[in-house]
Amino acid sequence: AGKVLSTLRNHWKKTTFGVCLLSWGGNWLYGKHCDNLLRRAACQEAQTFGNQLIPSSVPLKKATVFLNPAACKGKARNLFEKNAAPILHLSGLDVTVVKTDYEGQAKKLLELMENTDLIIIAGGDGTVQEVLQELSDANVNLLSSCVQAVFSKIPIGFIPLGTTCSLSHTLYPESTNQVQHITNATLAILKGETVPLDVLQIKGEKEQPVFAVTGLRWGSYRDAGVKVSKYWYLGPLKTKAAHFFSTFKEWPQKREAALMYLGPTERPPEEPEEKPSRPPLYVRLYRRLRLYWSSRPKEIPQEVTPEDWEELKLSTVELSIATRNRQLDLMRTEDFMDICIEADTVSKGQFVSRGSQKMRDPHMCPEESQCIQASRCILQLPEGTEGSFGIDNEEYEAMPVEVKLLPRKLRFFCDPRMREQMLRAAVQ
Q1: 47-72, pLDDT tens digit by residue?
Q2: What's the pTM?
Q3: Comparing C-alpha atoms, which of 146, 118, 123, 27 is closest to residue 67?
Q4: Is 324 helix (H, G, I), strand (E, B) or coil?
Q5: Prior bond of 297 cis (ω within 30°)
Q6: Alpha carbon distances (Å) from 415 to 67, 113, 412
Q7: What is the pLDDT of residues 320-329, one digit of tens each?
Q8: Hey, which CATH number is domain 58-192, 3.20.20.70, 3.40.50.10330, 3.40.50.720, 3.20.20.20?
């Protein structure tokens, strides 16, 4: 024992390194063990759904999974197959997995919509937008009716696998463990509780519309946030560094534009949920065609008199147009989106400190900002304006756009605890 202690003391650097390595290895193994326990518990819970007896005349529920393998820096496929896929298969669902890593699949998506009971999007914010956009590329008019009629009837599950998953904050409880977060989200799909989410239709002068469930950002905070990853070598200081160095380029940083908007709209009473038996395929096709043709006249925009529009000129460090999905209120009587126009008088110190807050909550609206509630708006940019919009964390060229609120058009599965929490908050 004395020789061992003497050797360890004489080679203290190697000893210290060895102890650190063993400690790290032990923690890593323990973490893997805990993850396996979480997976096992989730699979056992899913098995109870799979063991439920159904009549032989009732077909299995069909689930179409849109998986983005490129999400989470290429780790999404492995995360899905290890943590989510076993739960879905054990639950008794008839699962079809469609990878969203190639173009030209819009036609296939539309065909799948006719023969699915629920949609599951596995990825991040970009994957949600990509699925909607693929439908848009297939047929703009059909998408409008699809969003308003078909998507509002087909429930959507979201399995968070991306680096940015804004919907997670609304649908699931916070969790620091990625495995637990994924398994909880997958189990929430099986439990069947849903909440209606708003959608923003964002249309340029010549472009096809883009659909967003979180919102649009245009300004200096967004531009600096995109460059944070370039300063990875600064570790925890990278966010402050990105915002600090951006103040050297131009100051004061401001965006100028003209905004026209319409106020909130009254929310109609929600239709009671119906759960009829699934009709035959030919009946569903007939109903779909009838719905499409009957909805065509509705695509003509309603006449809005000039007096209804509010107009203002704005100069801002950042403009954001966001849905209310983050602060979901199931009982509110009006539908609107939040327009936040931040003051352009922010100091450099405030800009750097607030930039860190914006990375955590991109659509936060500081106290001195001008906040507007609107159902529709038109953003006019000065000629020659450069830069980019961030739409659901995806980058688009800045241009004049019309943003229209489509209230409660997507129905997403959520954790029952989150729905109960929303209802309690609404009553209070």
Answers
A1: 998 888 777 777 788 898 888 888 87
A2: 0.80
A3: 123
A4: coil
A5: no
A6: 21, 24, 10
A7: 999 999 888 8
A8: 3.40.50.10330
